[in-house]
Amino acid sequence: MLLPAAWLAVQAQTQLEAPAAGCLLDASRRLVTLWGVAGSLVPGKALAAGVDGAACGPGHIMIRAGNTLVVLAPDGSEVSRLSATESWRFVAASGDRAAAWRPGAVVVWKAGIWTETPVQGQWRALALSKDGVIGLIAEDAGLRLRFLNASGQIVREEAVGAQSQAAFLWPDGALLLWRGEELYFRSPTGGERLIDLAVSRVEAVSKDWVQAAGPAGLFALRRVGDFVEWFALPEEGGP
């Protein structure tokens, strides 16, 4: 169940105010705003509590909590919600759209309208492309990228390789793969690079940032071209 928390009233920014960098899930499973710039990130007040996962886009935020999806405006006010008979597993947000996957279906939200499309396979991640949805599918032989158009038809597929416990997918097909305690970045051309950061949990909270927890604490990871930078984060947000 999604529990309301203290809503953050985001005032119009001036040149003296820190820019909004996205969101993070703190140790208490609260979604909090993230302010500042890379290397100097500060969590703000909580937007919601009891959050299983979230995707923070530039114009809205999608939260998943059990069987419920909630779309929030940047100021934390609720825009729309949708419930299902099964729990939602992954969410994504980009531009004016947001999407989520549960076994057997992908749902896309745009301009207040929810559109559900039947899909097959066990998904490990999803992203919104310019004209559809991309899914990372787990198969016996390994992982596979599946590109769907706006009608849910498969446009093309691409083999990725070995399985992973979790993954983050960018719209161009780049991947962050969590295998054991190791993180790998896979470029859109297929090359993989080990990231020197031991982790025990990986979560995507925006189209640009990935959140990772490990023995050294909580980190925000950001992709820059074919490289990944990471920055330390406080484990608790504000009140």
Question: Which helices and strands, and how do they pair?
Answer:
Blueprint: E1 3-4, E2 20-25, E3 31-37, E4 40-49, E5 53-56, E6 61-65, E7 68-72, E8 78-83, E9 90-94, E10 97-102, E11 105-110, E12 113-118, E13 122-128, E14 132-139, E15 142-149, E16 154-161, E17 166-169, E18 175-179, E19 182-186, E20 192-195, E21 201-204, E22 209-214, E23 217-224, E24 227-233
Antiparallel strand pairs: 1-4, 2-3, 3-4, 5-6, 6-7, 7-8, 9-10, 10-11, 11-12, 13-14, 14-15, 15-16, 17-18, 18-19, 19-20, 21-22, 22-23, 23-24
How much beta, percentage-wise? over 45%
What proportion of the residues is helical, as a percent range? under 10%
> What is the radius of gyration computed over CA atoms, rounded to a whole number of angstroms?
17 Å
Low-confidence segments, given as residue ranges, are 1-19
Mean pLDDT: 81
Number of helices: 0
The level 1 CATH classification is Mainly Beta
CATH architecture: 6 Propeller
N→C terminal distance: 20 Å
Largest sheet: 4 strands, antiparallel
Task: Please provide the ordered H/E string of secondary-structure elements.
Answer: EEEEEEEEEEEEEEEEEEEEEEEE
Number of domains: 1
Shape: globular
How many strand segments?
Answer: 24
Question: Looking at CATH, which topology would you report?
Answer: Neuraminidase
Major β-sheet strand ordering:
1-4-3-2
Name the CATH superfamily classification: TolB, C-terminal domain
Secondary-structure-based class equals mainly beta
